[in-house]
Amino acid sequence: MPRIRLSLATKIQQRLSKIEQIPPDKLRKTDAGLAGTAIMILASTEHDDIGIVMDDKNAEQTIQTVLADTYYEAYLRVFNIWNLIECIEN
């Protein structure tokens, strides 16, 4: 796993653990890994930006917080699935 992906995933996992008050090894691993995976996709394709769609408000906010003030903040967007569905339906 690339170094940047691991450090972001670790930060997200730690923050989620505190918010959810659950040990890090009991959390879903996919939530923490999404930002790292999005960075890998961004780096390996010609896309200008990548969107992550979440159904977990805590994970959504945590990913946004960890990405804030990083190079990737401008290129990775985190969306709430229910807001996105509502927008598409309208």
Describe the 3D structure.
The termini are far apart. The chain has one domain (3-89). The mean pLDDT is 80. It has 90 residues and is mainly α. The protein has helices at residues 3-20, 29-44, 57-67, 81-89; strands at 50-54, 76-80. Helix 1 (3-20) packs antiparallel against helix 2 (29-44) and helix 1 crosses helix 3. Helix 3 (57-67) links the parallel strand 1 and strand 2 (76-80). It is globular. The chain has 4 helices and 2 strands; from the N terminus they run ααβαβα. A two-stranded parallel sheet has the order 1-2.
The number of domains is: 1
Query: Which spans have pLDDT < 50 for at least 5 consecutive residues?
Result: none
**Roughly how much helix do the residues carry, as a percent range?**
55-70%
Shape: globular
- Helical segment tally? 4
Strand order of the largest sheet: 1-2
Give the structural class.
mainly alpha
Distance between the termini: 40 Å
Order of helices and strands: HHEHEH
Fold blueprint:
Blueprint lengths: L2 H18 L8 H16 L5 E5 L2 H11 L8 E5 H9 L1
Parallel strand pairs: 1-2
Helix pairs in contact: 1-2, 1-3
Concise overview:
The protein is mainly alpha-helical and 90 residues long. The chain is built from 4 helices and 2 strands.
Descriptive terms for the model:
single chain, 90 residues, mainly alpha, two-stranded parallel sheet, 4 helices, 2 strands, globular
